[in-house]
Amino acid sequence: MESFFRTHAYLVEHTHAPVRRALMDEIDWNDRLIGIKGTRGVGKTTFLLQYAKEHFHVEDRKCLYINLNNFYFQGKGIAEFATEFYEGGGKVLLIDQVFKQPDWSTDLRKCYDTLPGLKIVFTGSSVMRLKTENPELNGLVKSYNLRGFSFREFLNLQTGNDFPSYTLDEILNRHEQIVRSILPKASPLKFFQDYLHHGFYPFFLEKRNFSENLLKTMNMMLEVDILLIKQIELKYLAKIKKLLYLLAIDSPVAPNVSQLAEDIHTSRATVMNYIKYLADARLINMIYPKGETFPKKPARIMMHNSNLMYVIYPCRLEEQDILETFFQNTMWKDHKLNKGEKGTSFLVDENLKFKICPNEERRRNAETIYARHKIEIGHGNEIPIWLFGFLY
Question: From the CB of residue 209, how many other CB atoms can be counted at a distance below 10 Å?
Fold first, then answer.
C-alpha cells in the first residue's frame, strides 16, 4: 500500500493540466460511484489526478490513485484492495483503466454494498457499455464522457484566455455579440486550422511527432479497446483495420456494406458490427436520416474528428469534408445530429437545418443556418463555423 501512496503523491505533484476541463464542474462529486468514459488519448488519467490535486493535499491518505495496469492487481482484486484502503481511513479511490480487471463490475458492486463511506471514481474506454453490459451497476453508477479538446479549450490554451462555453441557443441568437467579446482578445481564425489538424487530442502538447503518436493511439484503440473489451479474436484485427481504412478513404458517404464485406472477406452482418465497434471507439461517427438508427445502414460515415483525417489519408482531403467533420464532432456532445435534407448538410435536434459553407453562399434560405468558414464575424443566419467550437 505504501508504494501506491508514493506513486500517487509523485503523479499528483507532477500533474499539470494546461486547461481545466469543463467536465470537472459538470460531475456531481457527491455520488459514490462515478464512471469517466472517453476515447484513448483525451486525458482521462490527467483528469483523475487533477481532481485529486484540487480536492486533497498531495500527502492526504484519504485519496488514492491506482492504475490497474499494475501487475499487482493480477493477484489482488479491486474489492480486496479497496477494503484494505478503506479500513486504513481511505475515502476516495481513483481507479484508472478499470476494464483491465476481468470481474471489475462485480468488484465495484461489492465495494458499493460493503464500503458505504467509500467513493470510487473510475475511468474506462468509450467502447464500454457501463449499464447495458453490466446490469449489476444499474442505478448505482453515474456515467460521464470526457471528450477531446474543444476549439474553445484549444484557443484558451494557445492564447492564455479563459473564454467561456456557450449553448447552441446562445450562439444562434447572440453570435455577433459573442464574437465581439472574443475578437479584442484573440483572433480565432489564426488558430482554427491548427485545431483541425492537431488540436483535439491533448498529447499535441508532448514533444513527440503528433501524427505518429496519434497512429499509435489509434492502433491501441483497435487492439485493446475493441478486441479486449469486445472479446474479439486477434486474427480478426487485420479485417477491422482494413475496414477503418476503407471507410476513411471513402468518407463521408453511405457505406457499401456488400462491397466492404467482399473486401475484408466477411459477412454483411459482421461488417455492420465492426462499424458499430469503430463508432463506439470514437474513430468514426454514423450519421442517420431523421427517425433511423443502428442496426440500419447509416446514410453517411464520417471520421470522429478532423485530426484523424489528416493521419489516415491526408492526400485526399477536401475542405468541405474537414469542416463538416469538425461541425458534427462538436455537436455530438449535447445534441442529436441527422443527415441534412436537400440543400443542407445536417439536421440538428430534428428541426434546425445547417449548411456548412467553405465560402460565401450566394443563395440563402431564411430557414437554414449557414456555418461559414474564413469569416471572423457573421450576420443573421450566417455564423462563423469556428464559433460552434465553443459549445463545450
Answer: 10
Q: Are 371 and 355 in contact (CB under 8 A)?
A: yes
The CA distance from 314 to 392, in Å, is 27
Q: Rounded distance, CA 46 to CA 231, Å?
A: 28
Q: Among the residues of the chain, which ranges form H helices? A: 2-13, 23-26, 44-55, 78-87, 104-114, 151-159, 168-182, 189-198, 210-220, 227-229, 237-250, 257-263, 268-280, 306-312, 319-331
* Alpha-carbon dihedral angle through residues 237, 239, 244, 249, given to the nearest 10 degrees: 140
Residue 365 in contact with residue 342, Cβ under 8 Å? no
Cβ count within 10 A of residue 272: 19
- For residues 280-301, one letter each, b for 16 or more C-beta atoms within 10 angstroms of the residue's C-beta and e for the rest, the string is bbbbbbbbbeeeeeeeebbbbb
Q: Which helix (H) or strand (E) holds 254?
A: none
pLDDT in tens, 217-271: 999 999 988 998 888 999 999 999 999 999 999 878 899 999 999 999 999 999 9
Give residue 208's pLDDT band: very low, low, confident or very high (50, 70, 90). confident
Q: Give CA separation, 5 vs 26, 48, 71, 74, 85, in Å.
A: 28, 15, 16, 19, 10
Joined grid coordinates for residue 231: 472479446
- Grid look-up 456531481 returns 28
